[in-house]
Amino acid sequence: MPAKTLLEKAKNEVSEGIELQQQGNLETAILRYRRALMLKPNYFQALQKLASIHSSQQNWAETIQCYQRIVDFKPQLPTPYLKLAQAAQELNQIDRAISAYQKALELKSDWPAVVYKEAGDCLALRETSIADAIAAYQKAAELKTDWSAGFYTKLGDVLQKHQQWDAAIAAYQQAIELKPNSALLYLLQGAAYFKKRLV
């Protein structure tokens, strides 16, 4: 059977899948996208649509599988790496999530601030990625200045882990300004001052 015929059949399956998805018939749409992939295993649109449905259903294992296939044959696209990272983080596959976030940030440098914050949250979970977490949080802070006290607290925490005392103290101060009645924030800032004096 000629490849063009297979592609046309795959396109038809995807078109039908899109219609079914718009009608809310997700299970049948999934079957259509899978049929398209049986015809053309790396058919981008079918994988993307399938991943979208699995993500909306919080079926993270299937979501990961779809985005992994996409990045395997289209490694130059940053968004599938981001989606892969987010899904992997949902399943606590931290190393996979970190790797995917790093690749997404490497391929594209103009993500919205929230992406850098999410990447920072994930990167901060591994001691070996603290420097990258700091960079991600700092980029998020550059892009958006109205973060919550929680954001600045996390930034202060990772800065402390990296022994950047002055920057940690400043981050805690920003958190304190947003949440002045939090005794914990004063305690964290005081601990940073104390540790700074010890070194």
TrEMBL record:
The family database entries (Pfam families) matched by this protein are listed as: TPR_11, TPR_16, TPR_8
Start and stop residues of the TPR repeats: 10-43, 78-111, 149-182
Which organism is this entry from? Neosynechococcus sphagnicola sy1
Q: What name does the UniProt record give this protein? A: Uncharacterized protein
Family annotation (PROSITE patterns): TPR, TPR_REGION
Keywords, sorted A to Z: TPR repeat
Q: Does the keyword Hydrolase apply?
A: no
GO MF term (any one): protein O-acetylglucosaminyltransferase activity
